[in-house]
Give the backbone structure.
Amino acid sequence: MKKLMISAAALVFATTVVAQDNVSSVEQVGDANLSGVLQVGSINNNKLVTKGDNNTAEVVSLGRNNRNVNSQGGDDNNFEVLQTGSHNSSRINQGQVSSNGAVTRVGSRNEATLLQDGGGNKSVINQYSATSGQLSNDNIATAEQLGDNNENVIAQDGDDNLATIIQSGDSNDSNILQQGDDNRAITRFYGDSNLNDVDQVGDRNNTVVQVLGTGNSTSVSQSGDDNSALTAIDGDRNISSFSQTGDRNNAGDDFLPGDGINITGDDNTTEIIQTGNDNNSFATVLGDDNVSSSRQVGDDNNSVLTQTGDDNRSILRINGDVNTTVIDQLGDRNNAVTEVFGNSNSVTISQVGDDNSALTDIDGGNNNTVLFTQSGDRNNAGDDFLPGDGVYIKGDSNLAVIGQFGNDNDGFTTINGNNNLSVTLQVGDMNTSSITQTGDSNGALTAQFGTGNVSTVLQDGTSNGSLVGQLGTGNTSTVSQTGTGNASVVLQAGF
C-alpha cells in the first residue's frame, strides 16, 4: 500500500496536470495512520476520517465529478480506492464514524479494495457490526466495476468474511450482506442489466455467482452454517433463486459446472429451496424457456434436475427425510412433477422426446420407489399435479415402474397400501395401462407391444397377482381381483 502511494505521489510531481475545483479533506486521530489522496481532473471531491491506530488509506480519482467519502474507526484497517472516469461515487466505512465525529462502531484489521472505471458507477463497502459494542474484524471486501451506471453494496458484520463483486458491463446491480463469521461470497457479472442479491446469516457459508449475459436476475439467501450455493448462467433474461435455511445444505461446493444451478440459454427460471440440514440439490438447464423448481423440507434429502431443450417444466416438492429424486428431461415441452411426503423414498424420472408428462405423488409413505422412463412423444403419466394421475402412492415399501417407448401412450398407477409391486411396460403407440392396488403385498405386471392396446388391473386385498401381456393392435384386457391370494394371467395377440 505504501509503495502505491509513493508511486502516486511521484506521478503528481512528474506530470503536468490540469486540475480545477478539486476538494479533499483528511482527518486523522490516533497514532501511525497513513493516508494518500491523488485527484487528477476537475470537480473531484474526497473526504476521509480516520480514528484509531495503524490505519492505511489510499484514494485515487482520475476524471471529473468523482466522489469519495470514507471512514475508519478502529485499528489496522486498510483500504484502496481507484476511480477513473466521471460521476463515480464510492463510500468505504471500516468501523463507523458519526457526523459529530464519534466512533460508534469499531472494526480492526479489515481490508477493502475498490476499482471503478467508467461513468456513473456507485459503490458502498461497510465493514462494521450493526450491534453496538460488537467488533467486526479481519474482513476482506473487493469491488471492481468496469463500465457505466453499475452499483454494488457490500456489508460485512462479523469476522473473517470474504466478499468479492466484479461487474463488467453497464447497469449491473449487485449486493452482498454477510452477518456472521468465515463466510465467502463471490459475484462475477459480464454483461448488462444483471441483478444479484446475496444474504448470508451464519457461519462458514459459501456462495459463488457467475453470470455471462444480459438482463439476468439471481438471488441467494443462506441462514445457518456451512451451506453452499453455486449459480452459473450463460444467457439472457434468466431468473435464479436460492434459499437455504439450516446447516450443511449443499447446492454446489465450488465453481464447478454441473453443481448448484447451471443455466445455459435464455428466459429460464430456476428455484432451489432447502429447509433443514444436510440436503443436496442441483439443477442443470440447457435451452430456453424452461422452469425448474426444487423445494426440500427436512434432512438428508437429495435432488437432481436436468433439462435439455425448450419449454420444459420440472418441479420437486419434498417434505421428509432421506429422500432421493432425479428428473432428467431431454426434448421440448416435457413436464415432470414430483411431490414426496415421507421418508427414505426414491423417485427417478427420465423423459426423452417432446410433450411427455410424468407425475409422482407419494402421500405420507416411507421406503417407496418409483421409476419412470418415457421415450417418444406425447406419452402421458399424469398431466399435472392431480391425485390419481401418473403414480400415486399412499403407504410404505411399494415399488412402481412405468416404461413407455413410442408415442401417445398413457400409463397410470395408484397404490394404497404396503409392499405392493406395479410394473407397466408399453412399446408402441397409443397404448393405455391403468393399475390400481388397494391392500398389501399385491403384484401386477402389464406389458403391451403394438398399437391401441388397453389394459386395466384392479386389485383389492392381499397377495393378489396379475400378469397381462398384449401383442398387436386393439387388444383390451380387464382384470379385477378382490380378496386374498388370487392369481390371473392374460395373454393376447391380435393383428
Q: What stands out?
A: The first helix runs from residue 2 to 14. Confidence is low (pLDDT under 50) at residues 1-6, 8-18. The helical segments are 2-14. The chain has one helix and 46 strands.
